[in-house]
From TrEMBL:
<dbReference type="Pfam" id="PF21365">
    <property type="entry name" value="Glyco_hydro_31_3rd"/>
</dbReference>
<dbReference type="InterPro" id="IPR000322">
    <property type="entry name" value="Glyco_hydro_31_TIM"/>
</dbReference>
<keyword id="KW-0378">Hydrolase</keyword>
<dbReference type="InterPro" id="IPR013780">
    <property type="entry name" value="Glyco_hydro_b"/>
</dbReference>
<feature type="domain" description="Glycosyl hydrolase family 31 C-terminal">
    <location>
        <begin position="432"/>
        <end position="509"/>
    </location>
</feature>
<protein>
    <submittedName>
        <fullName>Glycoside hydrolase family 31 protein</fullName>
    </submittedName>
</protein>
<keyword id="KW-0326">Glycosidase</keyword>
<dbReference type="InterPro" id="IPR017853">
    <property type="entry name" value="GH"/>
</dbReference>
<dbReference type="InterPro" id="IPR050985">
    <property type="entry name" value="Alpha-glycosidase_related"/>
</dbReference>
<dbReference type="Pfam" id="PF01055">
    <property type="entry name" value="Glyco_hydro_31_2nd"/>
</dbReference>
<dbReference type="InterPro" id="IPR048395">
    <property type="entry name" value="Glyco_hydro_31_C"/>
</dbReference>
<dbReference type="GO" id="GO:0016787">
    <property type="term" value="F:hydrolase activity"/>
</dbReference>
<feature type="domain" description="Glycoside hydrolase family 31 TIM barrel">
    <location>
        <begin position="129"/>
        <end position="393"/>
    </location>
</feature>
<comment type="similarity">
    <text>Belongs to the glycosyl hydrolase 31 family.</text>
</comment>
Amino acid sequence: MMGSRELCIHLLDGEVWWGGDITYGDQMPFGRETVEVDLAAGIRGNQAAPLLVSNKGRYVWADDPIRYRFEDGLLTVTCEASEPMLRESGGNLREAFRSAADAHFPATGTLPDERFFSVPQYNLWIELQYEPTQEKTLRYAEAVLANGLPPGVIMIDDNWMEDYGVWRFRADRFPDPKAMTDRLHELGFQVILWTCPFVSPDNAANFRMLESNGYLLRDERGETAIRRWWNGYSAVLDCTNSGAVAWYQEELQRLMNDYGIDGFKLDAGDPEFYRASDLSAVPMHPNGHCEAWAKVGLHYAFNEYRACWKMGGQPLVQRLRDRNHSWDLNGLASLIPNGLAQGLSGYAFICPDMIGGGQISDVENNPSFRIDQELFVRYAQCSALFPMMQFSTAPWRVLDKEHLALCVEAAKLHAGLGDTFLALARHAAVTGEPIMRHMAYVFPDSGLEDVTDQFMIGDSLLVAPVVEQGARSRAIRFPAGEWLGDDGSSVQGPCVLEVEAPLSRLPHYRLMIGGAIGNGERLSSDTNP
């Protein structure tokens, strides 16, 4: 067995890097402080890739998990299974990313269902927790409309089914699933169901069948692997086994055929639930099992993932992992830096976490928990100009009329920009370019590498949400050009300007291009907007 391969790179003057594990987004760009990340040891519940990209037009790639360390002007990259490579691809971040994408994770030309980019998502997780029912689902959807929010994608989360691995509606909770889905469609919603790769060993019939067919992961002794996850102990579907995947997809297709289900939230699949010593149809590193689970979702135009490995350029919706109901880097403050890291790791079709936070521990058996209404509104505003946005906690239940109206306004702003998001999504499907872009990606050589609290949608829409508690103004870094604000103001860049941002305002500005307002893309006929 060969030892690890090591690549040592001396950083150039002013050189900084992005990539790897997107959960480290708040520490990016890398290069100025000592940081060490081992992607083989885990990916912290979100997306990752064996990729690093530099603002000096360089990138690092390996075909397998890497460990990387930045210290004293040196980047050291090691890989156990393949040779890490350094490529010089141009003079800036955009050129580095485009070269890496073309070479290693080319876009497929396809995208998730187009409706994702123009309507909100409504995930029932925080509101219904482990007790979703047909009645509660319909009541939630009707309340969306009654409170002035637009219909969208509704997600019925965990425990709608009979058991893990038994993908049939629980009759005691969903007495007539077809009638429910028909009604949701009539109201203007699309319907997604939660699923996972786990199989309960307590469901004898299903477990015996899957085990006898060799569809379950085995441990190093050859025994069916039983793994601890957040809902207990379960066997794990072997997604490197084509027969196992075919069985699973047949189960999901039956739900689509019989009940009109539109797609699936494919949860879990994190590398931590696998072992390097596991026995599978195709020998695989734990990260590879995560990748195999992600490939299952390519069958569905309506899909959602949270944990993914090396799936850049693919038509999969990637949500940020569950965040707290807080202002800090465990909550709201993490959304922008991690969203920027998603795009620079190859994941273009992104969604922030649930508005207000999706961490179940905030609310589950916690009688002292209270919603911060200002935080909830700022969460909604920050999410509104991501490519997608997702509600869960019912805003009409936890907010007064004033704060609810501001969340409705944010949702309508997102829907109103649906054409812009969709145009950029189609562009991403061809080129792999992020929809949500770092300031340094669009404006190289402008000293914007450290800006992590504002972002670009395409090349001409600058978004600067308020992410600090109590703030009613904020500083914005404007690149060169004339910028037309949502408040009617005009700003001539480059400059740093303190702007008014009352709770009713999400500051955003469009770049004037040739006397016209940019619509997110540069006004050209090529594929490099």
